[in-house]
Amino acid sequence: MKFTLMPIAAALLAALTSTTVFAADTQDSNNVDADVIAAETQPVDSQAAVEMLTDGWEVHGYGSMNYRSNSDFQSFDSELGKPDYRTAGTSGKSANQVELTVKKKTAFSNGVKSDFVVRAEYGNGDSYYYSSPGAEKTNTVAQFEVKEAYVALSNLPYLGEGTEIWAGRRYFNRAAGILTGEFWKQSSGMGAGFETTLANENKMGIALVSADPEAGHGINWENPDFQPARPADGDRTTVHSLDLYYYNVKALGGSFDFDAKIMKRADEKLTGDQAKDGYGFAVTYNRDYYGLDGWTQTALAYGHGMASNRGVNFGQWSGDWQKNSKSWFATSYGVLNINDRWQMGSELTYWAPQDMKWGATSDGKDKVTRFIAAFRPTYKVNNNFRVEMTGSYAMEKVNGNNWGREDNATNFYSLELAPVFTVNADYFGRPQIKPYITWVSTSDEAAAGAIGITDANKKDQVVFGIQAEIWF
User: Fold this and answer.
1) Domain limits, the chain
2) Which of 303, 310, 306 is nearest to 319 (CA)?
3) Residue 303, by phi and psi: left (phi above 0), alpha (psi -120 to 50) or beta?
4) pLDDT tens digit string along 58-71?
5) Could you tell me how far CA 227 lies from the centroid of its own chain?
6) Beta-strand pair 254-265/277-289
7) Contacts (Cβ under 8 Å, ≥6 apart) of 118
8) Signal sequence: where (predicted)?
9) Rounded distance, CA 230 to CA 216, Å?
10) Interatomic CA distance for residues 357 and 400, integer angstroms
11) Is residue 416 exposed (0-12), middle (13-18) or buried (19+ Cβ within 10 Å)?
């Protein structure tokens, strides 16, 4: 299967914009006076015609400061299997993760609005504890850097109200599990897009997003094998995703979101089984908590080739899959409001990638099945204090050599207890300071090592920590 993304994107963008312009130009045309039409076609001074009504700034952000120790009273780098749907809990490895988003917002008298968005991040993925005189600046991992920078223009008169165009670097259309924290849907990279609103509620759009798998890979002179050198410009393997989406379709007591992505890589000189293209789709159902008070998101996704990472998860990592790889993905997560005191978050996730080269088989046709069920009930003691409990069970099944494990199916367990000091004891109340104790366990010693359990010949471990978290 071969795709030529740029002509497809250009054609679809032209079709969408021309349809919007046609609708705007023809609306109520029979009721417009000829003198009005003549007046509108006269040249005007655009500087005098458009007045800036509002001009301001918004600042948002996130912070997670996770101070934790294993049973040896050491800081450590493992996330205890959380990124692979093996456990759930306060197990992110970032010691000091800080994220700031600055938005320049402007509105004009003709209805046009503009946004300039810059998101910067520091410390994501760096587990070390630095002291004030520490040579933190010599570390090349997880430094302060810009993650998003784009401009969006909405309600342009020739495109119509409810439309938006954007260009730049962006995390686009993201969704993540509530307890695993894994982003299963996103397009991360450089790109541009068009979006319009239909019937005042449905959102339809198209975007082209691109990323270089080699980006950021320079030579580490102290350990030259740690990161590969940048390739010559002609050898870049730039990957592209053409995103088509239609959101907020009301049905069955909730709403549906539809995503489709067509992916392709620029390097046609690849040999072997590495994927050169792929496609994926996802359907998301949004509603209350299965008929009760609260909310849920339930999604089903499929991906093939480059889109095998849950179908609609695109970024630098999309160049690592094989041409015959494929996967089914299903997830359902949300928060139940039980009463004035009790709330509960939950997540059920299933992922089954096939025909990868992950080292389980000699022929490169590895098949992995992962499932996790996680629950987090919380009890509100008063407005500024709640008690939080988290439990999860996960199963991972592998064909072939089972990655050195005794059985081809491994079980993972985690339990966590945390008193939470907060300014708002709601489930999502922040800022907060959360002391916690976490127990993780597996059914196999080889799997224990894979998730970062450091005690030799043990299948379980206890972690103590205090996390400070805020978003605004």
Assistant:
1) 64-96+152-471
2) 306
3) beta
4) 999 999 999 999 87
5) 24
6) antiparallel
7) 101, 102, 103, 146, 148, 149
8) 1-23
9) 8
10) 11
11) buried
> Comparing C-alpha atoms, which of 173, 192, 159, 167 is closest to residue 22?
159
User: How is residue 16 written in tokens?
Assistant: 């969408």
- Cis check: omega of the bond before 353, within 30 degrees of 0: no
Tokens of residue 312, six digits: 């609609």
Q: Which residue is associated with the tokens 């094998």?
A: 225
Neighbours of 12 (CB within 10 A): 15
Percent above pLDDT 70 for the chain = 82
DSSP state of 348: E
Residue 320 is encoded by which pair of tokens? 């690592």
Distances in Å between the alpha carbon of 66 and those of 121, 123, 422, 437, 469? 16, 11, 16, 13, 8
Q: Which residue has the tokens 């979101």?
A: 257
Q: Thinking of the domain 64-96+152-471, which architecture would CATH place it in?
A: Beta Barrel (2.40)
Question: How many helices, marked H, and strands, marked E, lie in the chain?
Answer: 4, 19
43-52: long-range contacts (C-beta < 8 A, 24 or more apart)?
49/110, 50/108, 50/109, 50/110, 50/112, 51/108, 51/109, 52/106, 52/107, 52/108, 52/109
What one-letter code names the amino acid at 11?
A: A
Residue where the block lists tokens 């458009």: 50
pLDDT of residue 172: 95
Query: Phi and psi for 303 in degrees, rounded to 5?
Result: -140, 150
Give the dihedral of Cα atoms 218, 222, 224, 228; nearest 10 deg. -20
What letter does residue 26 receive in the DSSP assignment? H
Residue 50 has a pLDDT of 78
Contacts of 239 (CB under 8 A, 6+ apart): 210, 211, 212, 213, 263, 264, 265, 266, 306, 314, 316, 318, 319
pLDDT in tens, 85-123: 999 999 888 999 999 999 999 999 889 999 999 999 999
Q: Angle CA(383)–CA(385)–CA(387) in degrees, nearest 5?
A: 130
* Distance from C-alpha of 243 to C-alpha of 250, rounded to nearest angstrom: 21
